[in-house]
Amino acid sequence: MEQKLKVGVLGATGMVGQRFVTLLENHPWFELVAVAASPRSAGKTYEEAVGGRWKMKTPMPEAAKKLVVLNVNQVEEVAAQVDFVFSAVDMSKDEIRAIEEAYAKAEVPVVSNNSAHRWTPDVPMMVPELNPEHAEIIPYQRKRLGTKRGFIAVKPNCSIQSYTPALHALREFEPTLVVATTYQAISGAGKTFKDWPEMIDNVIPYIAGEEEKSEQEPLRIWGKIEDGVIKKAEGPLITTQCIRVPVEDGHTAAVFVNFKKKPTKEEIIDRWNNFSGEPQKLNLPSAPKQFIRYMEEDNRPQVHLDRDYEHGMGISLGRLREDTAFDYKFVGLSHNTLRGAAGGAVLSAELLTAKGYITPKNA
């Protein structure tokens, strides 16, 4: 890319915002030029605003430290400085919907980590390897918003990345029923063990709103564009339980599945290991070379050993075997704040750039 796109991060001081800031350091296509947060952070340098709340394992990027934090509510001021923004704002859903739409109407594309617009009918919710064609809804959204450049795109729930890609690669065999239990890291709640000590040596069998997202969002990913909206797929039937476990990063899923056309174990592993999507074909900067890998060892995938596969952007699967009640069962693992959150959003932005939906303002 001849000229880097200028990008801002909304909600830059929070955990996902911090992850965006680290991922944008030395990005070949994108340059971080603006950080925005709540009015109480505005006017401070990014380093001052974050203070002792830096939650990443790598140091704060030097280029970000001296950026002066803007008031996220002053849309025109932020919009004037950027070609597009990533959104990780911490607000109510109604407030998020309103502010993301305000940025889009200010002709700034918004690639959001938030859930507020996941069911807005003309907003694409993308895992770039699975449903890149959903970007084709953007012209309909722009018509509704009255914009030429501005639009909103979102990424799905972090936990579904641990099993939805595995099911997607097997769609030719027509999965009919899926039972999934996800074991979710504390960073999915924006926490570390330092600020959530009650999670040490503990399991919480409830995450608000998570099971509905886990059951419904894959169906939207598999949906079709009809009459200017995305209509979710009718199946498979998915039922889930979502459990918070004392793990820092990495969501694990235990999955049981029935098929209309039952494949062999060899066919399943072949489809997983050879699955490739649009990001791989386009050689996008953040795309894993091998999106899905199957691990033969009985004790893999493991969070500690495997969550950082392909820089946290790949999916690790294992323990595939026939079941007494279902056709098959297996275990999946994904990095929830990389593939599942900020990294997935950055990859989506790369795809939208490669497809011509995100462009420089002066283009």
From TrEMBL:
Its EC number is 1.2.1.11. Keywords: NADP, Oxidoreductase. Gene3D superfamilies: Dihydrodipicolinate Reductase, domain 2, NAD(P)-binding Rossmann-like Domain. The active site is at residues 158, 251. Pfam families: Semialdhyde_dh (PF01118), Semialdhyde_dhC (PF02774). One of its GO terms (molecular function) is protein dimerization activity. SMART domains: Semialdhyde_dh. It comes from the Bacteria. The keyword NADP applies. InterPro entries: ASADH-related (IPR051823), Asp_semi-ald_DH_pep-lack (IPR005676), NAD(P)-bd_dom_sf (IPR036291), Semialdehyde_DH_NAD-bd (IPR000534), Semialdhyde_DH_dimer_dom (IPR012280). The keyword Cytoplasm does not apply. One of its GO terms (biological process) is methionine biosynthetic process. Residues 6-138 form the Semialdehyde dehydrogenase NAD-binding domain. Belongs to the aspartate-semialdehyde dehydrogenase family. This is Aspartate-semialdehyde dehydrogenase. It comes from Anthropogastromicrobium aceti.
